[in-house]
Amino acid sequence: MKRLTRMSDMQAIYAIYMHPTVIPFLWHEQKSIEDFEPIFEDLINRKTFYVYEIDEEIASFYHLSRHAGRSSHVAYLGTFAVNPKLHRQGMAFRILSEQIAELRELGLKRMELIVESDNHHAIALYKKLGFQIEGTLRKFYKRAADAEFLDDHYMGLLLDE
User: E strands along the chain, which residues?
Assistant: First the structure.
């Protein structure tokens, strides 16, 4: 079940976000829960940060927003992560398939996201869902522990095809 994130979700989201298999592919570096709290509050205040629950446990979280004005038919997916306990079980495919269907029902025409070029599992998942790499943001991403910058891929899915 999808719902907006609440402050009471912070501990669970922090644990997923900071997990060693998740954090390399999200925006922030490792930090204490005290330092994470203002980031979390900002995400909640946007009213576009969702959790997906299974049996009252957070299975996933993501930011899903719509562009404004002439691009209001476009949804942007960011900060997408699945609880590591559920990795490689088809959970990401299930959640994103449901979200894509919901966006189609709302009449949106496009969904887009940015993914790190070394996140091979995510790229394969997005391609399986029909996303295409539409461009590469060269040297866009750098983890503190890495010597080199990484490319990010801009991916899009046309929802009316």
Answer: 2-4, 49-54, 57-66, 74-82, 110-116, 132-141, 150-158
